[in-house]
Amino acid sequence: MEYERKAVTINWQIENVKFPHQQEMKLHSPVFSVDVMDRTKWKLGMFLLPVTAIRLTLKREMEDKGPEEIGLHYEFSIIPTNVLCGNSSNRKWSSFRFLKDQSCPEVELTGKPKYRFNGSITIQCKMWKQLESIPMNGHFFLRTRIKTERCAFIGVIEHFSDFPADEKKTLKTILSPTGEVKMTINLYLSRLPRYSSYYNTFEGDFPSGNCCLKIAVDNTTENVFDLQLFILDFSGQKSNIGKLEREFTLGSSVKFILHDVFKEELLTKAAMYLPNDILSLQCELTLFSEKEYEEVERIEYETDSLSDVKQTDFTNELEFLTRREGIPCDTKLHTVTETFPAHTAILSAKSPVFEAMFASKMKEADEKCVQIDDVDAETVKRMLVFLYSGKVDELEWKDAKELYFAADKYQLLHLKSKCVALLSKSVDLSNCIVLLLLADMHQDKDLKRVVQDYITQNGEKILYSDQWKTLEKNHPQLAINYFRELYETLVLPSRLFQEETPSSPKISSCS
């Protein structure tokens, strides 16, 4: 149900959310104060169930300056993307009269989607007062981030041909910061009956040489985790056999069997999978634990007149995170003049370049520091603000050019597209040649097309300028390509059309 009356809309984005299959999960949003609703304070609640359901609730806080009771209409919906616009799913509308420190009945939304470990979900709640209108629309943007820990390693079993059945081989032991064992990952060979299609029955146990591979995970924590396992071939690449992708709830031991991998088959294909009689398995583990960040990031109020829009200052999330206790930064970005603390989980989730650095044995992972010598400190700061908040301010074209370079270097495609939009609006006679060189260097067809169109529209002013003459001298191929593409775009299609159009028939005069 949609109201024409003004409303307060809350978008609560939850990052690194994970839906456990075997346990309930409860999350609450940061508390937010709504001035246009009698200065009452609220928070959203989300409850994930082992079945395909999500329950949402709205709670009024005990301490606020509002009346003892306030009646609201409210509507819940889910936006399972990183974008706050677009169509929402599973809308449900309700009404309730709230006392202080009271929650409304839980609203169940079914059809729960599946998310990857770095996925996000946005819970949207719209609120209207029951008996009266509010003076202006309000928009609240909240964010909660779940802490993730990633561990990638290669476990090896030497002398695999002599590895006996039922003997345990520990591939990895994961410790807490205090040295306590959080998890151990072990490998066994397991004797299992094999199904015989010829006799339509199960055969007896295998001899000791014909055993399945079994993975056992012993754990003590209470978190959710993803585990992926791959058998590596002789070249160190992931093979198609034995691939495992599972999600579990921690707190109890789990075991699983690689049914399509048998010892005798691996020995038969030793040249492929057992170089020097060594079996190698790559494990990729991600643990999801407690909240590492939650904040009301911005509040916007608006009326029917655009001139009356009032927007609060956007929280500088970068400075907030570097100062906030309880959220330790585990890496640093070191420029020539400044050093910025950061979180490897956030950098890796947004940039495949950072992910490769921290997931491998590169010096950035060992030294917990990334040296950046080709990007200035101010640009690195802008890049980090975007990674943490998704925010990019309006920039001068030179600053946008520097940020564009950083976005391309670290493969931040969304940031790169924003920089292209800023640069496209900034093209003029003084910088068009520089931007043409930039687009060509980064093989950016979109930016190059914008610059070429501008040059075509201002041909004489540019093609006879000293800048263009310098381009022809130092980058002759780029100048040639411009005229070739101009010919192919404007001249050639017209000529082809004329050649394909039949000539008009001659009309003889009648006597």
From TrEMBL:
Sequence ranges assigned to domain BTB in this UniProt record: 329-396
Highest rank taxon of the organism: Eukaryota
A Pfam family annotated for this UniProt entry: BTB
InterPro entries in the cross-refs: BTB/POZ_dom, SKP1/BTB/POZ_sf
Name listed for the protein in its UniProt record: BTB domain-containing protein
Organism of derivation: Larinioides sclopetarius
Lineage summary: Eukaryota, Metazoa, Ecdysozoa, Arthropoda, Chelicerata
